[in-house]
Amino acid sequence: MAKKFEDLLKEDFFRFSLEEIKDLKLRFFREAFRHHYNNCLEYKKYCDFYKTKPEDIKTYDDLEKIQPVPADAFRDSDNLILSVPREEVVEIFTTSSTTSPNPVRYAYNQEDYEMISKINGVLWKDGYDIPDARSLLFLAPSPEESDTGLVKGGYLGWKGVGFKDENIIFGVKNGNLDVDDLLEKIENSPKPITIYGPPFAYLPFTEKWKQQGEKPLIDLNGKSRFITTGGWKGVKHDISKEELKEQIAKTFNVDPSEIRDGYGSTDIMTMLPECGQQRKHVPFWNHVSVRDPEDTSKELGPDKEGLIVLMASWPQAYPAFCMTGDMGFIKEEDCPCGRKGQTVEITGRAKGAGARGCAIRLEQFMEAIQSKDAFDF
Amino acid sequence: MNKIKIPFIIGGETINREENTEKIDFHKKSVEISTPVLTPEDLEKIKKTQEYKKSLHDLNSEEIISFLTKAKEKWKKGSNLREEAGKKITQATGYSPEMVDFALQQIEDILSRDYLELLLKSELGNKEMMDSWVEKGEAYVHCQPAGTVLHILSGNAPLIGIISLLRGLLTKNINILKMSSGDLVTLSHFIQIFQEIDPDHPITKSISAVYWKSSGLETLNQFVEISDLLCVWGGGEAVETIKNNSQGKEVLEFGPRRGVQLIGKEVFQNKNPEYLKGVARKGAHDLVVFDQEACFSPQVCFIEGNWEEAKKYASELKKGLEEENSRLPKGEKNLQSVAAVEHLKAYSTFLGNEILDSPQKDHMIVITEKVKHTKSHPLGRTLFIIPVEDFSEAIKEIGEETQVVAIEPFSRAYELREELTLNGVDRITHLGKMPYFAAGAPHEGIYPLSRMVRWVKSR
Lengths: 377, 459
Prior knowledge:
- The structure holds two protein chains of two kinds.
- Chain A is of the alpha/beta class.
- Chain A has helices at 5-9, 18-39, 41-49, 73-76, 110-127, 149-161, 179-188, 203-211, 241-252, 358-376; strands at residues 69-70, 89-95, 104-109, 135-138, 168-170, 193-197, 224-228, 259-265, 270-273, 280-281, 286-292, 295-299, 306-312, 321-331, 343-349.
- In chain A, the strands form three sheets. In chain A, strands 1, 10, 11, 12, 13, 14 and 15 form a seven-stranded mixed β-sheet that branches. In chain A, strands 5-4-6-7-8-9 form a six-stranded mixed β-sheet.
- In chain A, strand 6, helix 8 (203-211) and strand 7 form a beta-alpha-beta unit.
- By secondary structure, chain B is α/β, with parallel strands linked by helices.
- Chain B has 18 helices and 20 strands.
- Chain B is globular and about 65 Å long.
- The interface between A and B is medium-sized, with 35 and 28 residues.
């Protein structure tokens, strides 16, 4: 008898063989496609237009027939795109775009909501090599202050890793990030400490490091793990990943290998974790389909650059087969870190598709509050 | 591998280097473009061009115009320099040879004496204004050059660099041009004509055309420091960067903006099918010029009619686009641009909009009733058609992001132009004329020449 999804989460899923991973993907994505085709009217119409039916999905290679939905359609559709009755929706997560003031909206039912914590918990614990969930500095507002996926989904995911509320510090309050206060809190927190946030949230620390003659602000060597996510193309601060990584390492006196990026996406409510080899791994419940830029119905093989489609098999409330507007490529080979399955590399954005991501929305959020403070003076 | 080496031009000297060069990111794998790396010595030489301020000032406008008309002769169709530039521009921009030829002809056209004199006369009020003191009101008025103008150019249309330079020359300014990675060829080739005409002429000696990466803020700041006025062309990010680093210097902004077409109900009331065909052909022409990359290019077309009439127009427009494509073929686009069009196609299909495209990916027409479905635009000869009951619905959606509105029939312009321009539109024109700027008309709400001088008086 086939193992249940939740039982598989308890296994060493990143070390399943490539064949096992492909079998699991075929099984879960075929089910997911059937569910959304049968229960989401807009999605069915869309698939019918392209003459794609659930019966067409017979092999792993047939996953390319699952019609991807451009993420912006989740923003501009008149109605919330749903594969479950509206009354079952318990939460809506949002993400931003630079082309519209309105956010992209993804709905979750109770089962999905609980799953966010479960899947991200096991994914990040393994993917980021976090054996001991002692304390977490969340370089973002608390979930009460922000409805972005980075914050709300991130909070649920880190809880799933095992961090307890009393050991989670929210680094942004009322739009402010107080570096001195946070350094004190880091000092007093149980170690190892995991520090998580969008790239720009690390800048106040690195700025202070520069002001203090580039001497480390604190020594966290061997006592920490740094995670960045949420997009590198900010509204204001353009700094390369490499530059920021180097500055964070020097600011906190840690080895650069302690600083990991994640490909975070509210579209599938997860963050694909970067291993020590700087590869972002895709678990069996997600699938990255790279589409031909000239014909998005065709999938490109590994190592070929195209439009990224992020897919998740577990959400019931909406068809999580999202064409993000990101460009990139996948690899399908064993990683030297020991994990198997797809890895994904992002190379940029399709021109015209505005930069999206939670980090942008958070930065706007912080700026808005900071400018309000400025007026008060 | 086809290698194109772009020289710097500094004070009349062409600088080619074998070493200390940088490759420019370019989408065509078969072409490698490189420029010299800007050095502190280059910057020093550029500073020295300011020594020509006085001799440039002492030229009279007639001498400048005469010099430029000599450049026109050397840029005529068939000339070696133009042919060579044309080939390289095609390789380095991705535009088709026909489109490049169209652009090069535009350059030849604006180098005419009539055009240049009209520019001076209409923008400064009198073509003698740069040379003498002209009685105006109770005073004698005269224009002095601003000094040194830094032009930050964009690469979406080959004409841009030349227009910006001509404005700087007619106002007797020292000109430093930062070429765009999108088009490094046009300007660097064009300026070499000046050396052929007279290598020691103050015009030749006072111009510099260089390149550095847009992320090089330190370099930008060094150039801003030695400049008196900044002219910036390009996208929102480029304009913002320059404004944030202007050191209090005046910035003349050109872009980013878009065009809108308005097709009136009269077009559908007319019983002659040739009329609709002609309208669609004009609409198609506006769309194809510079593959929709220009600030005047239409992105949205409002049809005063119903869904069926919108489809009828779209169908004729599609034929028009096919015809135009045989005259001005679409160029080669990078992967990101191609992907953006396909992304929009999937998005529009999901949202139930109607799509007309071509198997060759030469164009795409999306008919939609919702303006919010048009907010992300991939360019690449893509037009949104929105049927509206009345133009009053369309006008609500047109603001300062729109540079030009083309109206068919043009008789409707008289009732619409006041409100449209009050909302921020810069230019109202005929359908089919969107790519053509009338000589002597303002640009982006200003007369640029009048802002590139200091107005002085005596009484």
